[in-house]
Amino acid sequence: MSDCLIHPITAQSFAIIDREIGEHSFTAPEYAIVRRIIHTTADFEFKQLTRFTDGAIAFALEAIAHRTPIVVDVGMVKQGIVGLLIKTFGNEVITALDFSSEQADRGDRTRSELGMRQCMQAYPEAIFAIGNAPTALLALCQPTDFIFTPKLIIGAPVGFVSVLESKAALARSPHPHIRVEGRKGGSPVAAAIVNALVTLAWERRS
Fold this sequence. Notes:
The protein is an alpha/beta fold. It contains nine helices and six strands; from the N terminus they run H-H-H-E-H-E-H-E-H-E-H-E-H-E-H.
């Protein structure tokens, strides 16, 4: 654990989680991410809800260390990760909503979806973190007429409409990803996953 990145109170919280979480089959990096989510939410159910594809964490750590841009769906995710990134690798963070116009929601597509589609073309090899908008996650999982090879997709939208469908689409996609099953998630969860990855990448730098 990197003392310069982990506040003492956070470290104490991690120790409590370690004592209470019980048996699990996570690898050390996977557990670091799940523990960060639980710390953020005080909800141990994320132990059962968090899924990782093979190699996803390794791809993400290398990408973060090489300052790969990070695309997020909403400003709350950005606010949750920029502070740590400033202290570490300084990756650019792009918000999909900034790529869409106010008029976009007059059609049958949301601003989040339209903005994400533009980000996919502008940053096809980025890390994508979704904590709010299932339509943005669905956009990431649909076929494209351009090369789209994201380093990682974090799928953690929260709510009731299209949330389960978007996560199921991510589960079927060929992209490396970390997802939260069910209706739970949210911007704090997506930010927690990114921050855990950044911390892991920083600890492994040589």
